[in-house]
Design the sequence.
C-alpha cells in the first residue's frame, strides 16, 4: 500500500501536553494513584512526543516503580537534572538536595537495577543467563547506533534523492534489528536450549514479544518501540514510508503497540503529526537532535 506524503509545512507546533491514553496516565500519577508499594518519590521530566522519554516511561510502567511525571513543562528544576535541558531526566526528591540522572539508556539500567530489589520485575533476561542478556543488549546497541539516527535523517531529508537514500537505510536498519532478534531466538531457544515447553518459557523471558507466545515486553522492545510507533505514524504521513510487511513482523509490532504499558504512554496520532512537522520540514532550531543530524554529528 502506498501513501502520498504530506509536502506542505502548515506551521504546526509541538504539543506540551499529552493526549489520549498518555494523558490518562499522567493524571493518574498526579493523583498518586500508583504509589502503593513504596514511595521512592521519583519525578520523570519528559515531553509528550519524545521517543527517548517514552522508552523510560514504558519501563516505569512495566517495572511497577512509582513516579511522578512532568510531561513537558520544562521547569527550572529540569536544568538541575539535565544541564542541557534534554529529556528524559529523573529527580530523586527524597534527598536533600535532590539527586538526579539523565540519558535514557542510563535511566533504563537504573530502573532495572532498582526493580531487582523492589518490585522484582525485569525487562532483561535472568541474570543467570548472561549470554541472553548480552544478545538483547546487542539489539539495543543496534537501535541506538543505527535505527534512531537514521530515523531522524530520513525524516529531516529534504530532497527526493536524500529521502530515497535514507528510506533504504531505515529499511536496512529494521532488517538488521530483525536479524538480531532472530539470532537471539535461535541461539537461546533452538540450538540445544529448551528441552520442553516450561523451559522454553523460562528461557524466553526478557527476549520480548518477538518470541511467539511471549506477552512481556523485553529490553529491545522498550528500546525500539517508540521509534517503530513513530515510523508508523510520522514517516508514513511525511515520507510515504511503509513498514516492512510480513506475518511475523506485523505480529511483533502489534504486540508492542497493544501492550498495556506501551499504550499507557501513547498520545493520539495527531499529537505526533503536529509535533514532528518541524522535523519533516527541517525548520531551523528544531532541536539539538535535529541540529546534530544536520551537522553529521552524534546525537546529544
Sequence:
Amino acid at each position: 500500500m502506498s501513501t502520498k506524503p504530506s509536502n506542505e509545512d502548515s506551521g504546526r507546533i509541538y504539543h506540551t501536553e499529552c493526549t489520549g491514553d498518555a494523558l490518562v496516565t499522567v493524571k493518574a500519577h498526579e493523583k498518586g494513584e500508583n504509589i502503593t508499594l513504596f514511595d521512592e518519590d521519583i519525578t520523570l521530566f519528559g515531553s509528550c512526543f519524545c521517543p527517548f522519554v517514552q522508552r523510560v516511561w514504558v519501563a516505569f510502567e512495566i517495572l511497577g516503580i512509582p513516579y511522578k511525571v512532568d510531561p513537558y513543562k520544562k521547569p527550572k528544576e529540569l536544568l538541575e537534572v539535565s544541564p542541557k535541558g534534554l529529556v528524559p531526566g529523573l529527580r530523586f526528591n527524597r534527598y536533600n538536595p535532590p539527586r538526579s540522572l539523565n540519558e535514557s539508556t542510563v535511566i533504563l539500567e537504573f530502573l532495572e537495577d532498582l526493580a531487582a530489589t523492589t518490585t522484582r520485575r525485569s525487562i532483561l533476561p535472568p541474570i543467570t543467563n548472561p549470554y541472553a542478556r548480552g544478545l538483547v543488549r546487542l539489539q539495543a546497541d543496534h537501535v541506538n547506533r543505527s535505527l534512531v539516527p537514521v530515523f531522524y535523517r530520513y525524516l529531516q531529508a529534504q530532497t527526493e534523492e536524500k529521502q530515497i537514500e535514507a528510506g533504504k537505510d531505515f529499511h536496512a536498519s529494521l532488517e538488521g534489528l530483525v536479524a538480531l532478534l532472530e539470532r537471539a531466538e535461535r541461539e537461546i531457544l533452538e540450538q540445544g536450549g529448551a528441552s520442553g515447553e516450561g523451559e522454553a518459557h523460562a528461557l524466553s523471558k526478557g527476549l520480548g514479544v518477538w518470541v511467539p507466545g511471549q506477552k512481556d515486553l523485553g529490553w529491545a522492545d522498550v528500546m525500539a518501540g517508540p521509534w517503530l510507533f513513530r515510523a508508523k505514524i510520522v514517516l508514513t504521513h511525511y515520507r510515504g514510508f511503509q513498514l516492512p510487511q510480513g506475518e511475523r513482523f506485523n505480529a511483533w509490532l502489534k504486540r508492542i503497540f497493544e501492550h498495556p504499558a506501551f499504550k499507557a504512554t501513547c498520545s493520539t496520532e495527531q499529537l505526533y503529526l503536529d509535533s514532528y512537522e518541524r522535523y519533516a520540514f527541517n525548520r531551523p532550531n528544531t532541536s539539538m537532535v535535529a541540529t546534530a543530524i544536520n551537522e553529521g554529528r552524534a546525537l546529544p
Remarks:
- The two ends are 35 Å apart (CA to CA).
- The CA atoms of residues 98 and 152 lie 34 Å apart.
- The chain is about 55% helix and 5% strand.
- Residues 34-38 have pLDDT under 50 and may be disordered.
